[in-house]
Design goal:
The protein is mainly beta. It is built from two helices and eleven strands, in the order βββββββββαββα. Strand 10 and strand 11 form a beta hairpin. The longest helix has 14 residues, at 140-153.
Length: 171
């Protein structure tokens, strides 16, 4: 009697977000009817546009984003070496590792200018930056505080003002 594979292993189930097309891990399984040292099962996966199997390795097909989806569920099937109709399917969770991404400019700050005596809070009427980690706009009050602090430290300087906004997320 031809027995099916009874388990599938994946060497790794994590991928760092924004890492591009990468190998996630190697698949392995043992066919009880075959020599374990020569065992080479064929693997297929239920359709998923973000992942693919090449040989016995699971790959991403594009960068993954933790904020969009931190975990993906994949059904992978190992086909019996002697008979493709004998198979075993197992569910795997692929975990996306979050990285701290810098805030993104939401408005055109190159057009920001002000005259002496004008307060910065008058210039910044709407939030200017989006923190991808927190899915919220960084408030104009936070940006104002950063600008005021920088302007005070450069009050006697003619150097241009550069604004660096860092993420509010901590690990």
């Amino acid at each position: 009697v031809n027995e099916p594979v009874n388990s599938i292993s994946l060497s790794n189930n994590t991928v760092t977000e924004n890492s591009g097309i990468v190998a996630i891990g190697s698949l392995s399984s043992i066919d009880p009817d075959s020599d374990p040292l020569k065992s080479q099962n064929k693997y297929i996966m239920s359709f998923n546009p973000l992942f693919e199997i090449k040989g016995a390795t699971l790959y991403t097909k594009q960068s993954l984003n933790f904020e969009e989806n931190p975990v993906y569920s994949l059904f992978i099937t190992a086909m019996d070496q002697a008979d493709d109709s004998v198979s075993f399917t197992q569910n795997f969770s692929i975990n996306v590792i979050d990285i701290n991404e810098p805030p993104v400019i939401q408005t055109n700050i190159s057009s920001l200018s002000f005259t002496q005596g004008e307060t910065i809070s008058q210039l910044i009427q709407t939030p200017m930056f989006m923190d991808p980690e927190m899915f919220n706009l960084i408030s104009s009050a936070m940006v104002t505080a950063l600008l005021v602090s920088e302007l005070r430290s450069r009050s006697n300087s003619n150097s241009p003002l550069e604004l660096l906004v860092s993420s509010a997320k901590t690990s």
